[in-house]
Each structure stands twice: as C-alpha cells, then as structure tokens.
Design goal:
The complex is a heterodimer of chains A (about 950) and B (about 120).
Chain A lengths: L6 H19 L6 H17 L4 H4 L4 E8 L4 E7 L1 H24 L6 H20 L3 H19 L6 H32 L4 H6 L1 H6 L3 H15 L8 H4 L5 H7 L4 H11 L1 H4 L3 H23 L4 H22 L2 H32 L15 H15 L5 H16 L8 H25 L16 H19 L1 H4 L1 H12 L16 H18 L1 H10 L6 H23 L4 H21 L16 H19 L4 H21 L3 H22 L12 H26 L7 H12 L4 H9 L1 H22 L23 H24 L7 H19 L1 H7 L4 H22 L8 H4 L7 H44 L1
Antiparallel strand pairs in A: 1-2
Helix pairs in contact in A: 1-2, 1-5, 2-4, 2-5, 4-5, 4-12, 4-17, 4-21, 4-23, 5-6, 6-7, 7-10, 10-13, 10-15, 12-17, 13-16, 15-16, 15-20, 16-17, 17-18, 17-19, 17-21, 17-23, 18-20, 18-21, 19-20, 19-21, 19-24, 20-24, 27-31, 28-29, 29-30, 30-36, 30-40, 32-33, 33-34, 34-38, 34-40, 35-36, 36-37, ...
Chain B lengths: L1 H19 L4 H21 L21 H32 L9 H9 L1
Helix pairs in contact in B: 1-2, 2-3
Classes of the chains: A mainly alpha (about 950), B mainly alpha (about 120).
C-alpha cells in the first residue's frame, strides 16, 4: 500500500503520540522533551512530504475511512492547497517555536508538561486543517480550545494566567458550540458532512432558507476563535501565557483557525450581501479597534496582542469583500502575518527574558546591548507597518487596492478606504513605537537585569523568519508565489484570478494610501504623549472585560437562582420535586387519553391462599411504615414483605425469580442488620405535621396511580416478543430454561453490564468501609446489654456441617440452571449465604484463616471470564457474546456450545459471590474495628 | 387476581414513597427497598399473570409464562440488592463522617442528644 493512502491521519495524530512521549521523556532529562517534540514535528513533516506535490498538480488528496456512517461521520482527511499551506505553517513555525521555547523556559518550569500541551495543540490544529469531514473538524476544533486552555494557564500559580485561560476557553468554547450547530445545519442542508460535497454545493446552500442561520452560527465560531470584535477581548488576556505559546497561538495557529475556516467555507458561503455585511463589518471594526488600541498598550505583548487582533480584522475584512482577488490578498497576508508576528513575539520574549520587563515605559536604548535582536525587530516591525521591500508591504498594497475597488459597490463605500487608511496610520505608529521606545529613546532606566544578547539558538528561529520576511518582500515571484498560487486555488476551489506580485505597480491610489499611512503614522507617534493622556481620559476606561464579567456574573446568578428554587441542599426537598413531577406527568397522561381505563382481558380467579398471602403482605408493608421509627421492628416486617414476594413468584410461574428473591432477601436483611448496629436504633419524631401530611398524600396518590396503571395493563391483551425466545431457546441457546438462556445467551451483554455494576457496588462498599470507625454500642435500644457471646457453639457446629451441603446445593443449582430453574445468579447467592454464615457463626478471623481467597480476585476473575467468553466469539469471527448456536452445527465441536454459555455463567457466579461476600465481610470487620476503637477509648 | 397484585404493588409503592421522603437514612433505605420490590413486581406483571406455566421448555407444557420480564426482573433483583447495600454503607459513611444520620447531614446536636438517651 502506498504511503499516500494513509499518511494524512498520521501527520495529524503523530503529535498526540508526541505529547505522551514528551511528557514521558522529561523524566530522564530536562530538555529531552524538547528534542522529542522537535523530532516528532520533523517526522510529521516527513510524512507530509510525499503528498506535497499533489496540490501542486492541481489535485486534492482525500483519505477516508467509514467511522459512524449512520450519522455521516467519516474518519476523513484532505490535502489541497489551503490545507497544505496551513499544515506547513503549523509544522514549520511549530518547529521554530520548539527550539525557541527550549531556551526560553527556565529551570523552574516543567518542560514535559509544556511540550506535551504544545504537541497536543499542534495535533489539534493539524487535525482542523487536514479534516475532510466537518464533524471531525469540529472535534479537532474543540481540542484546540482545550489544549490552548492548558497552554495559556501553563503558569498555574499566576492568577492572570488562570483567568485568561478561563476566559479564552469560555469564549472559544461557546463559539465551538455555535460552530457545531452551524455544521450540523450545513450537513443537513447538503446531505453530507464531507467538505468535497459541501464546497460543491455552494449555490444550493446560498439559496436555502437555512443559509442565514448556518452563516451566523459558523461565523460565531470563526469570530470567537479569531478574536473578532466584539469577541476580541479574550486575546490580550491570553498573553499571560509563556511567550513561545503566544508566538505560536497568535501568529500561525489558534487565531488563524477561524481565518482558516473563513477561507475553507469561502466557496460555499461567500458572495452574498449577508456575508459581506457581517464578515466585512466585523473585520473593519476589528481592524480599526485593534490598530488604535495597540498604540496605547505599554506592555510589549499587549501591543502585539492588539496588533494581532487588528491584522486578523484586516484578513477578515478582505474575505468579507467576497471577491476572488480579495481572497488572494487575504491568503497572502495570512502567510506574511504568520512570519512577522511570530518573529515579533519571539523578540518580545527575548527582551522580557534578558531585561526582566516588557514595559515600554521602562525599556529604552537597548540597541547597544542587543544589536542583533534590534535588527531583527526592526525588520519584522517594518514588515508589520507595511514598509516597502518587506512582505507586509506587498499584501497591504493588495489590501488597499481591494479597499479602493470596494468603493464601487455602494454609495457609502467611499468610507472604506478612508477608515482603512486611518487604521493603517495607527499600525505604522505602533510599529514605530515598538522599535523606537525599546531600542532607542535614550538610556535604559532601572531595569531588573543588565540586558545582553540571548543564547544563540533563541535567535536562530527569529533569524530564519526575518529572512523569509525580506525574501518574500524583495523577490516575491521566486519565493512565495508557488505556494500562494496553490493555496489560493485550494481556497477558491477554482483557477485563481490573474494577479501580480511585483513591488512596483506604478503611481496609483493604493501607493498614495501607503505613503500617507507611513507619513501620518510617524506624525501620530511624535505626538504620542498627548494622545496617551487623551486616551486615558476617555477611551482608556472602556474595558470589554467589564461587560464580559457582568454577563458572566448575571448568567451565574440566574442559574444559581433557578437551581436554588429546586435544590435547597435537602434530599427530602429534591425527592418531593422528583416524585411530584412524576406524579403530575402521570396524571396528565391518564387525563389526556380517551380510551377506557381498563380493557376486557379475562382476569384470573382469586384463591384463598393468594388472598391470605396478599393480606399478610399488605399488613407487613403498612406495619413497616407504622413502626418505621423503631428500626429493628420495621426491618423484620420488611423481611416478611420480601419473603411473600418470593412466594408470589412461585405462584405466578417464575421459579427462577422466587429462588433469587429468597436468597437476596436473606443477604439483604443480614446486611441491614449488621449496618443497623451502627446507626441509631430509633428514628426521632418529625416535628412538622404538615410535612408528614403532605408526604402521606403524595404517597397515597402515587400508590393509587400505580395500581390503576398496573390494572390498565393487566386487563389488556398484548403481543409479546417472547415467542422468539421460547422458540429459539432450545435450538439456539441449547437450554430449556428460557429465563436462564436469555440471561447468559440472548441478552448476554446486558447481563455482563449488570455484573459489572454489581462488582462496582461491591468494590465501592469495600472502599467506603476501609478504615472507617464508628462508635460501637454495648446496649440495645431498650438499654439491655448485648450478648457478648458472639459465636454460640451450637451454631458453630451446625454451620460447619452445613457448609459442604450448601455448597453442594449451589453447584447443583448452577449446573441445572441452563435447563431447569437455577443458574449463576442464584447459585452465587446461595454460595454467598453459605460463606457468610461461616463468618457469622465462627468469626471473621477464624473463617479468613481457612478461606484464604481474596474476594477482589474472585470479582476480577468473574469479570474476566464473563468478558473472555465474549471475546472468544469475536476471535472466532462472530460479534461479541454471540449466541453459540452456530457451533452446534459443527460435527466435532458441537458440545463446545454448551460449555461457552456455562463459562459465562461461571463469570456471573464468581462476581455475585465476590461482591456479596466482600461487602458483608467488610461490614463485619467494621464491627471489630469499632470494638477495638471503643476499647481503646475506654482505656484512655 | 389481577386486582390483588395491582393493589399489592400500589401499597408497596405508597409505603416506599412515604419512607423515601423521610429525613433519616435508615427509613430512606427501607423505602427504596420497598420501591425496588414494587418496581420488580410491576415489571414482572407486565408479562401478565400466568399460573403453573414456568418458562421451561417441555413438550407436555400447555403454555409458558412470559420469560422476558422474568429475565429482566432477575437481574433487577440482584442490582437492587447491590444498590441497597451501597446505600446502607453510604449511610454508615455519612454517620461516621458527619456524626449523624440525617439525609442532609444536618442537625448534628439534635442527633447526638438522641443517641445519648
């Protein structure tokens, strides 16, 4: 099989493996995880390499496996030009970030954790850009939200990091939900979740009545992720992350995920007035707000954060124009922004690292301390400002050209070039500030550290990126043109329009706008001090976070008040709500049906024995309630109820149930007795007569309702599905006891799940009782002394004689279970009773010395055997726990069938014995521990 | 006979609901046990009542009781036991941690007076 048949999922999933490896590697050496991560990234690039030529040949590589076909979810990957561009950005810049981060992190930071998160994030991003299936894309989208949360909160001890991470998660997570909704609607409209189908159905989607909801929901996802107004405010708070994270998340990845989605859906959703209005307006506003605010941030990373918001707005605005040429400019700017912004973040990190501060009011004159870094910063900042000969200039020119071109669309559109130039002026001003404030502007004053150049390898990633900025800016045709062309083709899913990447287009309006922006930008920077004051007085007080917090608090208050209405922290209160709601629903059900309450099925005659039993049962039930405050008495009467139910099962043709009920009843009562010893013997009287009356009324109405409902069913005929089981029990399951065959064969998976529950209950009980001590009493409720003789001789002798007999009965019941009433459950309970009686009569120590079996192991073996028999059928090529009927037809292994079902029943048997004995013996041990405890207390 | 069974189920449900709404753990456990009984019998009765026709395949049998509800109820009985066991131990745990057996873990002083009597 060719590598091209399966390499894309490997590229996307390899970083997740890398995350585990990186976390593991850090045990051996501090920087080992960095090397592992770098190695994995290179490996991912290597897996991607053979496929690179495919988009260049104008084809799309799709690798797809059915996953959950019923909901349209495929495990499907896709590589076209757009996906290739982003995959390369993610991997290459990721690699540079890894090298940089290895030197950035201090010895106090856990390298393993950092690189594990980073690799998880890288894998999630790759998953987004390489997904062919939209549902799968949403899954990876959510993974980026989660892993970026971990990255932003990497310095967990810092409150701002925790807050920033939580805000980012809340906003991008909410956007992710909106995106999921949009994608579901889109899939519903198109009839497929595969991008190939969706991209081809553009016209159909745009003319569909659900177009607007789809657009709004998907754009909510895009805008939250890409920090577009009014969701932009999480991004600056995410700057609390370590700088390599900011450099990665806010240059090439996280925030670009939203932009990627705009590009991805461009053929399917763009070109309508709605698209232009929503996307264009959000982009324009974000572009302006970001550029303006960046100027007034004194923190280096704060400036870069708002600059990022601004540039994302620019790209969004370009997509909003909706033309093919605008899309070209947008893709071009994505590449350029990724390079210069990543280098600027890394420079900010270097400055922070070597001087101890990022405050531009303290920083100045660093040129002579770190000339190399200064040169790098200047080139990157020039690219950000759009100075000619840098890559940023080229895409900005294209952007201006589109802005001018857009004026033809409507009467008000003349404002677009004006506003855009205004924002560009501020872009120049803040870029200048980044350079002048930090590297010039006099001598540094009271810096925490004496500044110096960083280690060589911290600069090398920046060197490389800056060289790219220059190379693209000066020689675009020889550098960026091929990948740009193929990415544009991938975005448009069509042949790209003619465009020119040359530096000189003649003297035209866009050039004038550029020059104006540069000149006025310098001017704005000159009068900055006055502007700061003005800003602080007016706009500086506006903080989107205030609104966010108010909204968050209002939501929390609302949900709390709703919750408190139902949940007052009282179980009684909650139970009344639950039962009351059930009652209301039931009454409505009865009311709204016109059919007569009872049917006309013939009823059975009542016989004297049944009547007597029923009367005793009802009396015992009422007795249980009446004397419930005297707990011992009520326990006895509830035992009577259980026993009569067992008799009822005998009467009504259910011998298996009768046996089960009987043995369960014994175990339950023994256990409740053991437990009652540690609880108050008498329930205190409840004060509120009102509450007792209310509960009584609820109880009586519920009882009447259940009675009527039962009668409504019992007086009607029905067509059960049980015929199937009755007919197939012998030929299919090889047993005449249909109930047992259903349990171990037809519905084996249910039974398996049930013994798992039982096993968990047993283990949970063990865990809860472990180490517990409760005051043991030496007197009963009436103040009489308990009999200290816990192991009467007659009982001891008798139970020891009985043990083999009882076990024999268990084995007998077990073996005949498949054909006559019996089986694993019942045999297990009987064996449990046999063992528990030994503990009761002879004491735990005596019995444990002789029964050297750990009940945990018994449970484990039971589950193992139960699951194992299921797996055997898989191994032979049938579904899990398949009915073994098929084997019967084989002449030689014909007998194997019966053995397989019995093996499963052995599993059931072992779990029942294990869980039951484990719980009861642990309860018994509690008694001993508590007596020792009491004795110790007395001594003291 | 159907009425008899239906009334029995109703009475057990009533008693179960009433006890479940009580404020101390032990009666609540008893109440849930009663509810489990009534639910099991109710479920069993959904296969209708048949006398003397167990679902064991036999050429001489005139008919069979419905085996499916029986199988469901059989496991339900065992699960109900597991649940009761877990609950009662939870009640013990609550008493050991909180010093009382109120379902909300409240009224400590009140309970202590009770036990001193």
């Amino acid at each position: 099989m060719s590598l091209l048949a399966f390499n894309l999922p490997i590229v996307a999933l390899l970083p997740f493996v890398g995350a585990a490896l990186a976390a593991w590697a850090s045990r051996f050496h501090r920087v080992a995880s960095a090397w592992v991560s770098a190695g994995i990234t290179v490996l991912a690039l290597a897996f991607l390499a053979p496929a690179i030529s495919i988009p260049f040949a104008g084809e799309t590589l799709i690798q797809s496996w059915a996953w959950m076909p019923s909901i349209g979810l495929d495990f499907a990957f896709r590589l076209d030009g757009l996906a290739l561009l982003f995959a390369l950005l993610i991997l290459v810049i990721g690699l540079l970030i890894i090298i940089y981060a290895r030197y950035y992190l201090s010895t106090k930071d856990s390298m393993g954790r950092f690189f594990a998160y980073l690799m998880m994030f890288m894998g999630s991003m790759l998953g987004i850009v390489l997904s062919e299936n939209l549902l799968q894309l949403v899954v990876f989208w959510e993974l980026t939200s989660l892993s970026s949360f971990l990255l932003i909160s990497y310095w967990q001890h810092r409150q701002d990091a925790r807050h920033g991470a939580r805000m980012a998660l809340a906003i991008t997570g909410a956007g992710g939900l909106a995106l999921l909704g949009g994608v579901l609607l889109l899939g519903h409209v198109v009839g497929s979740y595969n991008l190939t189908d969706v991209l081809a159905a553009g016209d159909m989607i745009k003319n569909h009545e659900l177009y607007l909801p789809i657009l709004v929901l998907i754009l909510l996802g895009v805008f939250t992720k890409s920090a577009q107004f009014p969701f932009h405010f999480w991004l600056p708070h995410a700057m609390a992350a370590p700088t390599p994270v900011s450099a990665y998340l806010h240059s090439a990845t996280m925030v670009k995920a939203g932009i990627f989605l705009l590009a991805r859906f461009f053929p399917a959703l763009s070109g309508t007035p709605e698209w232009t209005w929503i996307v264009g307006t959000a982009g324009l506003l974000t572009f302006m707000i970001g550029a303006y605010t960046a100027m007034f941030k004194h923190d280096l990373k704060g400036l870069l954060a708002y600059s990022t918001i601004s540039h994302l707005g620019l790209i969004t605005l370009l997509f909003g124009f909706g033309t093919q040429m605008a899309a070209v400019a947008a893709i071009f700017h994505i590449i350029n922004h990724a390079t210069f912004k990543a280098s600027l973040f890394m420079v900010a990190g270097i400055i922070d690292h070597e001087t101890g501060t990022r405050d531009m009011r303290k920083l100045s004159g660093l040129l002579k301390y770190m000339p190399h870094t200064a040169v790098l910063a200047m080139i990157a900042a020039a690219a950000m400002a759009g100075v000619p000969l840098m890559n940023g200039f080229l895409s900005k020119e294209m952007f201006f050209e589109q802005a001018v071109f857009a004026t033809e669309t409507s009467a008000w559109a003349w404002a677009i070039p004006v506003l855009v130039t205004l924002a560009a002026i501020f872009s120049v001003a803040y870029s200048l500030r980044f350079i002048h404030d930090v590297f010039f502007n006099g001598e540094p004053k009271d810096l925490p550290k004496v500044p110096h150049e960083p280690p060589r390898f911290m600069k090398i990633p920046v060197d490389l990126l800056v060289v790219i900025c220059l190379a693209v800016g000066i020689l675009p045709m020889f550098t960026v043109a091929p990948i740009l062309a193929v990415a544009v083709a991938g975005t448009l899913q069509a042949t790209p329009p003619e465009y020119s990447l040359s530096i000189w287009h003649g003297f035209n309006l866009p050039l004038v706008m550029s020059m104006l922006a540069l000149a006025l930008g310098v001017g704005v920077y000159m009068i900055r001090e006055r502007l700061y004051k003005l800003h602080d007085q007016i706009l500086g007080r506006v903080d989107a976070r205030v609104g966010y917090n108010a909204l968050l608090n209002a939501t929390l208050t609302l949900s709390l008040s709703v919750t408190r209405r139902f949940d007052k922290g009282s179980l009684q209160h909650a139970s009344v709500w639950v039962i009351g709601a059930g009652l209301v629903a039931g009454v409505i059900g009865f009311m709204t049906v016109d059919a007569p309450l009872f049917g006309d099925r013939a009823t059975l005659p009542i016989d004297a024995a049944s009547l007597t039993a029923a009367i005793v049962l009802i009396a015992a039930t009422i007795m249980t309630v009446l004397v419930h405050r005297q707990r011992f008495l009520s326990l006895i009467s509830i035992g009577v109820v259980g026993l009569i139910i067992a008799l009822g099962f005998v009467k009504f043709s259910a011998p298996d149930l009768a046996l089960t009920q009987l043995s369960v009843e014994i175990v339950t009562i023994v256990m409740l007795l053991l437990a009652l010893y540690f609880l108050p013997q008498i329930t205190p009287k409840e004060v509120s007569k009102l509450r007792l009356g209310r509960d009584g009324v609820i109880a009586v109405i519920t009882g009447i309702g259940v009675t009527l409902m039962t009668m409504a069913v019992l007086t009607r005929d029905f067509a059960p599905i049980s015929e199937f089981f009755l007919e197939n029990s012998v030929p299919g399951g090889g047993g005449t006891n249909v109930v047992n065959v259903i349990l171990v064969d037809f519905r084996g998976i249910d039974t398996l799940a049930e013994i798992v529950v039982l096993a968990l209950a047993g283990l949970g009980i063990y865990a809860m009782l472990e180490g517990m001590k409760l005051p043991a009493r030496d007197r009963d409720a009436q103040g009489r002394l308990w009999n200290p003789d816990t192991h009467p001789a007659i009982m001891q002798t008798l139970t020891r004689l009985l043990l083999p007999l009882m076990l024999l009965v268990a084995v007998f019941i077990f073996l005949r279970g498949h054909n006559l009433p019996g089986g694993g459950f019942i045999a297990g309970l009987i064996a449990s009773v046999a063992l528990i009686v030994q503990y009761l009569a002879n004491g735990i120590d005596w019995t444990s010395d002789r029964l050297k079996v750990d009940m945990h192991t018994v449970i484990a073996y039971g589950l193992l055997i139960g699951t194992g028999t299921g797996l055997v059928s898989i191994a032979i090529g049938f579904p899990f726990l398949t009915s073994t009927f098929e084997y019967l037809t084989w002449p030689v292994v014909g007998k194997f069938e019966v053995a397989s079902a019995i093996a499963f029943d052995i599993g059931v048997f072992l779990v029942v014995v294990g869980a039951t004995v484990l719980s009861l013996v642990q309860l018994g041990k509690l008694s001993r521990a508590s007596h020792d405890y009491a004795a110790q207390q007395e001594k003291n | 006979m159907e009425w008899l069974v239906a009334i029995v189920i109703g009475v057990m449900t009533s008693a179960g609901v009433y006890l479940t709404l009580r404020a101390r753990t032990f009666p609540v456990v008893l109440g849930l046990t009663l509810l489990a009984y009534s639910a099991n019998v109710f479920l069993f009765a959904m296969g209708r009542l048949t006398i003397g026709q167990p679902a064991v395949i036999d050429a001489a049998a005139a008919g069979y009781g419905d085996p499916l509800p029986q199988a469901l109820v059989l496991t339900a009985i065992v699960i109900a036991f597991g649940m009761t066991a877990f609950l009662i131990v939870l009640a013990l745990k609550a008493r050991s941690e909180l010093g009382n057996d109120h379902v909300d873990g409240l009224h400590r002083s009140h309970d202590e007076q009770e036990t001193k009597q």
